[in-house]
Design brief:
This protein has 200 residues and is mainly alpha-helical. The chain has a domain at 2-122 and 174-191. It has 9 helices and 2 strands; from the N terminus they run H-H-H-E-E-H-H-H-H-H-H. Strand 1 (87-90) and strand 2 (93-96) form a beta hairpin. The longest helix is centred in the first third of the chain and has 27 residues, at 2-28.
Length: 200
């Protein structure tokens, strides 16, 4: 479920990178952009920031830890960028290698797209297992996870419900980074509960 949501975000991110790079190349070649194209160029980079910061900071620590698939998506993006050396958390300071972040995020999108491209040739439960392998290749599962250890033959031969029932409520617990972020942000997040925009 998390990867389904991530696929949407990754598509938007990839397209914003394409728009920014295509229009930047035209500017570098001396072309004059239309007003609409200039606006697209200016906003394309902001879309990338929005996807990254929304996924990493908001989704990862809002809601409960009970099967919070949006949170797992944020955790996946953070860990993917960290493991590719474009995101650094050192001495409580978080920094990004912004020149190389776009290609790293697009690579995650490509990995997710490849997973779904292969899904047409797989049974549903085999696809679920492949999706789990993609996530656990980057995130660390709970030490008690049945999925990480390998589902029993009884579950594997049974109905799909057995597969989903075997998923822990918190299958991919928060990393130390997110535990620290959660402690710092919990009071702020809780203070915003119930706030709604109005037309006034």
């Amino acid at each position: 479920y998390s990867l389904e949501e991530m696929r949407c975000d990754m598509t938007a991110f990839r397209e914003s990178v394409n728009i920014e790079r295509t229009l930047a190349a035209r500017i570098a070649a001396g072309e004059e952009l239309t007003e609409t194209e200039q606006e697209m160029h200016d906003y394309a980079h902001l879309v990338q920031y929005a996807v990254i910061f929304d996924r990493i900071f908001r989704f990862s620590i809002t809601g409960t830890r009970t099967r919070n698939y949006d949170a797992v998506g944020g955790q996946l993006l953070f860990a993917w960028l960290h493991q590719r050396g474009v995101l650094h958390w050192t001495d409580t300071a978080l920094t990004f290698d912004w020149d190389n972040v776009p290609d790293a995020v697009v690579a995650l999108g490509d990995a997710i797209d490849d997973l779904y491209w292969h899904s047409i040739d797989r049974p549903k439960v085999a696809h679920w297992l492949a999706a789990y392998d993609l996530v656990r290749g980057t995130l660390t599962p709970h030490p008690a996870s049945q999925w990480a250890r390998g589902l029993s033959d009884e579950i594997l031969a049974g109905a799909p419900k057995g597969y989903t029932d075997a998923v822990m409520d918190d299958e991919f617990p928060l990393s130390m980074f997110f535990e620290t972020l959660d402690k710092k942000m919990k009071a702020v997040i809780e203070s915003t509960v119930g706030i709604r925009g109005t037309d006034d």
